[in-house]
Input
Amino acid sequence: MLVNADFHLHSCFSAASSKDMVIRNMAPKAKLKGLGLLGTGDALHPGWLDIIEETTSYSGDGIYTFDDMDFILTTEVEGKNRIHHVIIIPDMDIARELSDKLPSNNKGIDGRPKTNYGGVELLELAHEHDCLIGPAHAFTPWTGMYKSFDSIYDCYGKKPDFVELGLSADTDMADTVSELKDFPFLTNSDAHSPWPHRLGREFNQMELEDISYSSIKKAIKHRDIKANYGMVPNLGKYHMTACTKCYKLIDPLVAKDMKMKCDCGGRIKKGVDFRISEIADYDEPKHPSFRPKYVHMMPLAEIIASVYDKGVTTKTVQGLWQKLIDSFKTEIDVLINVGLKDIGHVDSEIASAIESFRNNTLEIVPGGGGQYGKILFKKEVKKPKLVTLDNF
Output
């Protein structure tokens, strides 16, 4: 069975997360998105585990169900050097045992616990308890594994189970790094709120024997992921090297000359694109035979907002979003499967924007420095200039 799965997200207990990020909200919104399997996030937080147990029914083999939505226990841990790791956990008993064993001063406070364990210790702890583990948003400049290590094996000591790409990278970028040729790639939302423009903004389409921890583990181990769906990388907020204060895009060589200090006084942060170029072994990606397609997409509400130059939560945007969902059932179907002519009957401009995604004909202002990129559906908008050696 083909299942759309988003493993990495957060609960109401994580910093900067919505108080609405609870099972009762996540389940119906995930169904509207078109997901069939959702990670719980924050599965080392005792209070969140209590809520999961109270809210869901146990369907067996690691699956917890509410309102016909299936959940698997997952967590993100911030380890040594502020590197983030994603862990997929077999069941509630193991989650509680891991929580007890992980040395952390804030695991009862923040849904994403901090620990002085590095990748080696976390992998050993995870594998000792039959969990799956890999780097979260592996290339991002603040908390990605490759910000501190040139090799994944230097971080973990041995091979972890997967690599999560993050919003600012895709398969083409990651497959320029030769050591990743044997790894399955996961694309997850890292959502902090339950709305469909956050949940499933990146997801994995997987072939599962059934919805169970055993089947998920087998699919990841056997690299049986059929497709990765995710943001166009240069829409990610750390894709390009840029200032974290004024968000000016700056050539990495210029940034080094500026000692990573912008003339506005802000700090310049190295972009994912440049970091990958530093560790890449190939100029062009070399995809292994098992690597599935990577399909670029963007949350439907954000497409509508860009087309009409309105806020995502405005009545205009939400009304059009709801009209499309009423007509075609799920957001993922609208973005990927529904005929453009049918979408055009609802709104021709939205149909044209979705066609641009499907045909890869987008014009984009890249993101960087903590600011997401923007799509230029309106051609009269001018793209900002990159600060280069020529105009520095």
Notes: The first helix runs from residue 23 to 33. The chain has a mean pLDDT of 94.
